[in-house]
Amino acid sequence: MASKKKRSLNAQNDRWVVIAADSVVDAAKSDGSDPVFVRLKNPATDVASLYLFGAGDADVYEVKAFDEDYRSWFIGQTVQRDGRLLYITPVDPLYLLLPYIIKAGKEQGKFQPVEQVLMDEDFPACRRLLRCARTRASLPQVAEEKEGNGQRFYKYSQEKTVEWLKKKVDRTVEALKKSNISVGGGVKSTTYIRTKQECNVQEEDYLRYAHGLISEYISEDLSKELQKILQLPEVSSPKDLEPPSKKRKVSDTPVEAGEDYTKFNGASFARKPPKKMSAAQKSLAKADKTGMKSMSAFFSPKAKTEKN
Amino acid sequence: MDLSDFEADNSVSCRLSSAIPDICRTTDCCLGIDEAGRGPVLGPMVYGICFCPIDRKEDLKALKVADSKTLTEVERENLFCKLDEAKSFVGWALQILSPNTISTSMLQRAKYNLNALSHDAAIGLVQYALDCGVQLKEVFVDTVGPAEKYQDKLSQRFPGVEVTVRPKADSLFPIVSAASICAKVARDHAVTSWGFVEDLGDVDTDYGSGYPNDPKTKSWLLKHLDPVFGYPQFVRFSWSTAKTILDDKAVPVHWDDDEEGGEKAAARMNCASMLSYFGKSRTSARETHRFFSERRLQSLDSL
């Protein structure tokens, strides 16, 4: 078969297939300004992720892509190679603010106006989070609040934050139960339709699943803190599953051979005559081997190339 | 020959048949099987059976049916008309396997090759004759693949019927010749009046014999290649002639049962590359929660 052409990865693409919350489109109608994609710091990974501000920055949405190999779209009379499906779903702006508030709390540890906290050269768009409808009202969920001179000042509070996250987890558990999402340990495929309801799913499974889901939106430290509060025991990490190292333990007892090789020296041990070679082996043996390296030569340390 | 049943939807397999002569239900009959259009890259493959009472074989000879390949198109047409007129004792049935059926069978995930497809078409037709009450005692077949194996397969499938599989059966047994004429006439009709389901505008119908080595066929294939869709359903996509042109000229399309090797394939299979086991420090990037990974949902960093 002819060699397959390689997929070029960076094809121009100015179209996407998107599923968006109605509010994205509705807001655009009323305000007249278009929703806009922006890059913001992902609170879980600290790297850039794609978000979308609704018209007038009223709401912020996260963008997730359903991305599977071997998919393309037929759209009208055209083909789109990028077979992804983008989901634009609302996200609580507080998640996106939290890294900044935590950072300020660590560095300054004093009450500050939120405008001062929310500075980021890498992601200047983060200031728009302040315009979101829910932002200011929900700040007290994660920070102590003070008022003075007609301004509000905030200081990060871990207790409050964890309490807030705990509520998020509880609500997520409710949502998981309502939408029949399989959270049990053994379940791998969500498309697998079972006839019977999972019977041995425990409350802890829901809690752990919800905690994992919320952890997609918070830093690792915070995730661990939340785990403690939820009293979820640690699960064995994959590292524990690795085979033990082969190094022999040092001990005081003298080292002895594990097997007795002296039996080969005895008279009773006669060397067996070499086995008959198969036809293929014979023909191989006949081949001219001059100039060929032995197999072991490839594994010995590389000879240093001499400098000219 | 009335092909309207097939022409109504030429993307699927279709069966055409004559009325069953009454005499065939009461006397021992012989049956011949032959096919037309096995090799071409264009158009359907047609399986034909012809049957008549064993003691009327001589009458069939009188019609001067002979191997369809030795006849001109007009002679074949005339002979088919004669066969159709002899409906008091000769019956026939056809299975038209559309090029689309052939393509999709041969290119599906669980490959269904042309020999299996042919055997099943033949078996289906014999079974049809039996179901119609034809008193079958002898079956003659032109071979597809090794004759012995095919004969065993058919004998097992139809106990009580004497099956003879023979290369060149179409020139040895008049009943097979008759079947070959029916099949060939049907194929000719189907190809000359092919109704393209695709909107091709002014389609050039000068595609020659349809055999891969026909220069007319080849240039037609080159001319009617669509970079995205390839060919109309008239073309057997599973033929290497078509495949080669598609590989060279059309947009590459990747399917998830394509064979690929190397690291990329390993990555797809979710296997870690061997090298990854030698790296000392495993960067502890957090794994995406299974809610997202199970649904193949990813964060994006740009569009």
Give an account of the 3D structure:
The complex is a heterodimer of chains A (308) and B (303). Chain A has 308 residues and is of the alpha+beta class. Chain A is 27% helix and 15% strand. Chain A contains 8 helices and 9 strands. In chain A, strands 1-7-4-3-2 form a 5-stranded mixed beta sheet. A two-stranded antiparallel sheet of chain A has the order 5-6. In chain A, helix 5 (158-178) packs across helix 6 (203-214). In chain A, 22% of the residues are buried. Chain B contains 13 helices and 7 strands. A 6-stranded mixed beta sheet of chain B has the order 1-4-3-2-5-6, with helices on both faces. By secondary structure, chain B is of the alpha/beta class. In chain B, helix 4 (73-85) crosses helix 9. Chain B starts with a helix and ends with a strand. At the A-B interface, strand 3, strand 4 and helix 6 of A face helix 11, helix 13 and strand 7 of B. Chain A: Keywords: Nucleus. Chain A: This is Ribonuclease H2 subunit B.
SSE topology sketch:
The complex is a heterodimer of chains A (308) and B (303).
Chain A: E1 18-20, H1 22-31, E2 36-41, E3 48-53, E4 60-66, E5 73-75, E6 78-80, E7 85-90, H2 93-107, H3 114-117, H4 135-138, E8 143-148, E9 151-156, H5 158-178, H6 203-214, H7 220-229, H8 279-286
Parallel strand pairs in A: 1-7
Antiparallel strand pairs in A: 2-3, 3-4, 4-7, 5-6, 8-9
Helix pairs in contact in A: 5-6
Chain B: H1 4-8, E1 14-17, H2 22-26, E2 29-36, E3 45-53, H3 57-62, H4 73-85, E4 91-97, H5 99-107, H6 114-131, E5 136-142, H7 147-157, E6 162-166, H8 169-172, H9 174-192, H10 215-223, H11 240-249, H12 262-268, H13 290-294, E7 297-299
Parallel strand pairs in B: 2-5, 5-6
Antiparallel strand pairs in B: 1-4, 2-3, 3-4
Short description:
With 308 residues, chain A is of the alpha+beta class.
Q: How do the strands line up in the largest sheet of chain B? A: 1-4-3-2-5-6
Count helical runs of chain A. Answer: 8
Assembly of the depicted chains? heterodimer
Work out the largest interface and the residue count of each chain: A-B, 39 and 29 residues
Order of helices and strands of chain A: EHEEEEEEHHHEEHHHH
DSSP strand count of chain A:
9
Main sheet properties of chain B:
6 strands, mixed
Query: Could you report the average pLDDT of chain A, rounded to the nearest whole number?
Result: 79
Find the structural class of chain B using helix and strand composition: alpha/beta
> Beta-sheet strand percentage of chain A?
5-15%
Structural class by sheet pairing and helices of chain A: alpha+beta
Task: Note the beta-strand portion of chain B.
Answer: 5-15%
**Count of discrete alpha- or pi-helical segments spanning 4 or more residues of chain B:** 13
Give the termini separation of chain B. 59 Å
Low-pLDDT segments, ≥5 res of chain B: 280-284
> What order do the helices and strands of chain B follow?
HEHEEHHEHHEHEHHHHHHE
The outline of chain B comes out as globular
First-to-last CA distance of chain A: 46 Å
Keywords (chain B): Endonuclease, Hydrolase, Metal-binding, Nuclease
Cofactor (chain B): Mg(2+); Mn(2+)
EC number (chain B): 3.1.26.4
Binding site for a divalent metal cation (chain B): 34-35, 142
